[in-house]
Design a protein that fits this description.
Oligomer: single chain
Distance between the termini: 12 Å
Bound molecules: 2-phosphoglycolic acid
Structural class: alpha/beta
Helix content: 25-40%
């Protein structure tokens, strides 16, 4: 299976024109482009090879939930993937493992492929609690989907929170450190009917991407900051093309 690149634009760019230009520059088969909600439709129109992803999806399909976006709505407009449980939502919006569990369940039921993000914070990392944190996130997060059977495509992204959005030049996790966590995650989800695709995320850029993408245990990268710079992202694309 070719390695996958997930471009998480987060709350960027500001205009649809910029979003469309960025999407055109990143439109390769191995990419999943995740723009902000307002640009999903416009980006969908210009993508010829890449898949479309959303950055979140709510835990209910319809109803009185002001400001939320239903996985069913996403599916209907051509979204294929949905990021769920990103650490920025856990930290800034108080998303709990229980909320994330429900979001995963509803996303799968809607026919979307979840990109489930897990990973420990800096403090947890320093206390040596990586495995404990991953255990909890996986056990609670996957409880609802385990009750059924996951026979659909499913991604899990290991994103150590301390390695996300670090300053240029700062060290992200090492490929071997990331692979060790990924092997651990794999061992914890081996009961799932279909083995999930395991990806790394956290300050992946043109300089360090090769180490992650060439590692046999890592099936791809979730790229934030560097996916907003077409020249840099192109260099990462060239590694998987
Ligand atoms: P980053 O973001 O590549 O800017 O660290 C990764 C992410 O979206 O978690």
């Amino acid at each position: 299976m070719p390695k996958i690149l997930i471009a998480n634009w987060k709350m960027n760019p500001v205009t649809e024109k910029e979003a469309v230009a960025l999407a055109r520059a990143e439109d390769v088969r191995s990419a999943v482009i995740c723009p902000p909600f307002p640009f999903l439709g416009a980006v969908k129109k210009v993508l010829k090879r890449a898949s479309l992803g959303a950055q979140d999806g709510f835990w209910k399909e319809v109803g009185a939930y002001t400001g939320e976006v239903s996985p069913l709505q996403l599916k209907k407009i051509g979204v294929k993937y949905v990021i769920i449980g990103h650490s920025e939502r856990r930290l800034n919006l108080g998303e709990t493992n229980e909320m994330i569990a429900q979001k995963l369940f509803v996303a799968l039921r809607a026919g979307l492929t979840p990109i489930f993000c897990v990973g420990e914070t800096k403090e947890e990392h320093e206390r040596g609690e990586m495995k404990e944190v991953l255990d909890r996130q996986l056990r609670v997060g996957l409880a609802a989907v385990r009750a059924g059977t996951i026979a659909k495509e499913f991604f899990i992204t290991y994103e150590p929170v301390w390695a996300i959005s670090t300053m240029p030049g700062a060290t992200a996790d090492t490929p071997e450190g990331a692979a060790e966590a990924i092997r651990y995650i794999k061992s914890q989800v081996k009961d799932l009917v279909r083995p999930p695709v395991l990806i790394y995320g956290g300050s992946v850029n043109a300089v360090n991407a090769a180490g992650f993408l060439r590692h046999p245990d890592i099936s791809g990268a979730l790229v934030g900051g560097a996916s907003l710079k077409p020249v840099e992202f192109k260099k990462i694309i060239n590694l998987v093309a």
